[in-house]
């Protein structure tokens, strides 16, 4: 029976019987998931129905016990689930074995910390040569490693490698074998075991093997061989513009080899520059400076010197050491004014002065830049920098004078628009609400406001919101409401979300409550009357929902919206069906052979974290459309992709789920109300993996776990092995300096950067860092999100410039395009997680 075989007729016959005995939630039975990624998984009704089908008189007892196991799992009672499995093992040992329940018992026991029982059952799987023997062997190796018995681990790994078919799993086993030898200081064993991986087509694995081999050669007293492999790592980078962790290890290894023989001084200029660039990219600024300094000392008069001096200053700047940065940046400007680095050095010089609050020096440097580089790209940027520097210093009259110079200099261009927005921000900081209204009205006439593609840009939504906010402060409530409602409120619309929050606040204010209630009722009445015109009914119901403060009104508005969606193709999800995967019914004693398909068995046991990768091994993505269903017809690629995404979600493989979820939701209008979507579709877009780690680390630090999810989703889409162009590592994307600081706070004395690729460590560090940011910016979630991306010092500057702790006033001041867009996305993610998981996390105590 293949993994796509299903007895549909029997499922239909027994469906009514089974559903009378099972408690289903949203059409699925919830059972605990093992291995700590997602706390619970959902079983499809088809799986449950087929699992309870009687197949013989004797097997009915097995089915009874099977039902008891599932009931215990539904109750999230892991000990009871294990007890029921053992009872089944004692009562029907053959049926227990041939259905691979011993493997499930081993997995559950391992999660429960009972390694002896886990080991015994994994051994049983091996002895009978089950289809899951390879997986059992791998787990036995992991158990040996966790116990500290590396000799036993290697023995288990050798057996795994010998029996595993060619592919990623086998190569992963080879790499782990080499690591085990390394950890035992057996360097010849490391080199020998890794040899098959050195030519692998799996580039990351091959580079990992090269790196470990090079280090083993170095430890074995064979520097020539070590140097050869380190050089290969360095000169065969997959992307020279983004040196990976192995390139960083290579330059460190080469530096150590050269230092040991006194050869650093003899390095060529090209070698120095290459090694420095790898260090600089990976934010090891101290190591980079040593090479840059050597270039400066030994390459006088060469064109590489100005860049080396500039990069040294830039490194200090990125570390926040602005006084030290100025020494090098000013040297470039003064000694190498014709070099290609001089322009950037002068720009950074002005920025350093500004961060040191030396406003006059900053303005002078910016003026020098304008005079020296009139044809520089984006020349308006320097003018806006002067305005912002003066604004930041509270010198508003001078700032407004520069606004007029900017608007005059760039009349009819984007620079004039940015100048007008800078003026609005100054008026906003001054609480000059009438001026804000006037500025916004003028800005709304421009078609291009820069958005988040240019620094200090804005958007129609932001300008409209600020105008509405100013009108609200002026007491012009009706006009403010109209403008707030005109801003679309969708799943990715930060200002629509903020506008709705303002409307809700006004609805709770006695001064404006009556007017809002009247508006709400009028919109509901219109929605009722327009039911025959679905799009108009949708628009009215959406407005009523944004104004609604009572559960009754909200329920009615949602009902009208739901009905309207049914009549509007644009608001309709595609019809997707689960493709039956895996063996769906237990086998009995009369079966002629045991199951042979690994994916079949893992899906049957609901071990989706292993089932999905096993399926990918035999059905690569391009071949998914070729899979056949029980009816003999090929399932559509959409259904197959949906099925894999849903099982990925249930197995804690969130990155795969999000990729499909984003594709699924992309055609839908942005204002589709999330709570009206099928729950599975909503969770594919906003999954909540690693719940045990979240609940262990976040609440204890006063951090809402949903904010951690919102940030992880934006940072990496939950890809735990991610590394960014800024050398940020792991799911939560920590740069080395911040990670080292968190390690010190957490008392991790032997921390290494690669630990960030472990989800639990990433979440721990993320919660710790967010906790510290909230201490710096109490109750200011937008500020915390901005600081996570752009740094707390910059956020403090932006908040100070706004003269307010209200996000309505300081978010427009965010000067980095990436950071501003980041805040928008994290905050909309957060709202989605709060809507989808209100009961899961609850309200944190103050």
User: Could you give the distance between the termini?
Assistant: 56 Å
Question: DSSP helix count?
Answer: 44
The chain-level structural class is mainly alpha
Radius of gyration: 31 Å
Number of strands: 2
* Low-pLDDT ranges: 1-60, 622-632
What is the averaged pLDDT score? 89
Helix content: 55-70%
Report on this model:
The chain is an all-alpha fold. Helix 8 packs antiparallel against helix 9, helix 28 packs antiparallel against helix 29 and helix 36 runs parallel beside helix 39. Helices cover 65% and strands 1% of the residues. The N terminus is likely disordered. It has 44 helices and two strands. It has a two-stranded antiparallel sheet with strand order 1-2.
The gist of it:
By secondary structure, the chain is mainly alpha-helical. Helices cover 65% and strands 1% of the residues.
Write the layout of secondary structure elements.
Blueprint: H1 8-19, E1 29-32, E2 40-43, H2 45-51, H3 59-74, H4 78-91, H5 93-98, H6 101-111, H7 115-127, H8 133-146, H9 150-163, H10 168-183, H11 187-194, H12 203-219, H13 223-235, H14 245-260, H15 269-281, H16 285-298, H17 304-318, H18 322-335, H19 342-355, H20 359-372, H21 380-392, H22 396-409, H23 414-429, H24 433-443, H25 460-473, H26 477-486, H27 494-507, H28 513-529, H29 534-547, H30 551-567, H31 598-604, H32 608-618, H33 637-650, H34 654-665, H35 679-685, H36 691-697, H37 705-716, H38 736-745, H39 759-776, H40 781-790, H41 792-802, H42 807-810, H43 817-836, H44 838-841
Antiparallel strand pairs: 1-2
Helix pairs in contact: 1-2, 3-4, 4-6, 6-7, 7-8, 8-9, 9-10, 10-11, 10-12, 11-12, 12-13, 12-14, 13-14, 15-16, 16-17, 17-18, 17-19, 18-19, 19-20, 20-21, 21-22, 21-23, 22-23, 23-24, 24-25, 25-26, 25-27, 28-29, 28-30, 29-30, 31-32, 32-33, 33-34, 34-35, 36-39, 37-43, 39-40, 40-41, 40-43
